[in-house]
Amino acid sequence: MTPRDTSHFSRSYRSLGFFLLTLLLMVVFGFALSKGAVPLSIIAIFDGSASSLETTVFNHLRAPRVVLSGIVGASLAVSGAVLQGLFRNPLADPGLIGVSGGAALGAVAMIVFGSSLALPETITPYSMPMAAILGAMVVTLFLYSFSAYYGQFSVVTVLLAGIAINALSTVGIGVFQYLSDDAQLRTLVFWMMGSFGRANWITVLPSAVVMLVGIVILILHSRQLDRLQLGEAEAFYLGVKVNRLKRVIILVSAVCVGAGVALSGIIGFVGLVVPHLVRLTLGVSHSILLFGSALVGASLMISADLVSRIAIIPAELPVGLVTSALGAPFFLWLIARARD
């Protein structure tokens, strides 16, 4: 087979892969809309023959929840992929390196003290996402500066700094839990384990726009991320504005993670597992990796939320438990594979 034939085969394989991933997402999306404590017929919903109860469940509960889970999954997966590229560290992940913890700390602070801030009613629904985004951004900037100054992005430096940041975030969250009343405490405990149960169109739509715009911006920088893998000096000589690229990735990934954490709580391992799955199947080029991660992340999160909804009907499992149950064994496999 000639190099040209090989290249054509590779492009055909990737095109087929993207087609199958898109088809999988559509199937999972439709299945998640129809299954739950109240089974729904999507055909009946759209042709108007569904009952008023089914229509209400679909419009106000099921649809915003499935849409939110898909967008959050895509957002976390793409953010994990770009952070791995930025730090040149395959173990970087919004949860492992403390970004999710920082976002959670900001959101928890708003849950506990938001009522005492006397915010205008027009801002109140969006106060928690804004606080979470700010927390994620502060943590990401600190982690980048710290690891660049002391460890040149080594795996050990990034992970140890992430452990320290997570520990500090846990302390701060514990303090806020201690200061919260009973109602706030119940909200905090369930929210911290991850849940899409509070999804509604008022908060889902603007947050979805923010996360989708962030995903598009990150995908548009995929070629520059590829060049950055050669080293900062080499990327600079290839025309990459390295410092600008770093700022964009840090800012946009923090916004994506913060918005997702604010609406769904702490959901681990998606940003770690999904990019590796895509690398193993479609390749390492970021132009492929980021788009594939968005599709796989959305499918994985919708599936995890579906499992959390139907596993113990009428109760629900926190979706963070489902993703951790899937991600932890995969993380152990990565460690074992790295030592071979």
Descriptive overview:
- With 340 residues, the chain is mostly helical.
- It has a single domain (3-339), classed as ABC transporter involved in vitamin B12 uptake, BtuC (Orthogonal Bundle).
- The protein has helices at 3-34, 42-47, 52-87, 99-113, 124-150, 155-179, 182-192, 201-220, 222-228, 232-237, 242-264, 270-282, 286-310, 319-339.
- Helix 5 (124-150) runs antiparallel to helix 6 (155-179) and helix 8 packs antiparallel against helix 13 (286-310).
- The longest helix is centred in the first third of the chain and has 36 residues, at 52-87.
- Residues 1-9 have low confidence and may be disordered.
Short description:
The chain has helices spanning 3-34, 42-47, 52-87, 99-113, 124-150, 155-179, 182-192, 201-220, 222-228, 232-237, 242-264, 270-282, 286-310, 319-339.
Keywords:
single chain, 340 residues, mainly alpha, ABC transporter involved in vitamin B12 uptake, BtuC, disordered N terminus
Helix content range: over 70%
**How would you spell out the order of helices and strands?**
HHHHHHHHHHHHHH
- First CA to last CA: what distance? 31 Å
Rg from alpha-carbon coordinates: 20 Å
Shape: globular
Q: Can you lay out the helices and strands and say which pair or pack?
A:
Elements: H1 3-34, H2 42-47, H3 52-87, H4 99-113, H5 124-150, H6 155-179, H7 182-192, H8 201-220, H9 222-228, H10 232-237, H11 242-264, H12 270-282, H13 286-310, H14 319-339
Helix pairs in contact: 1-3, 1-13, 3-8, 3-11, 3-12, 3-13, 4-5, 4-6, 4-11, 5-6, 5-11, 8-11, 8-13, 9-13, 12-13
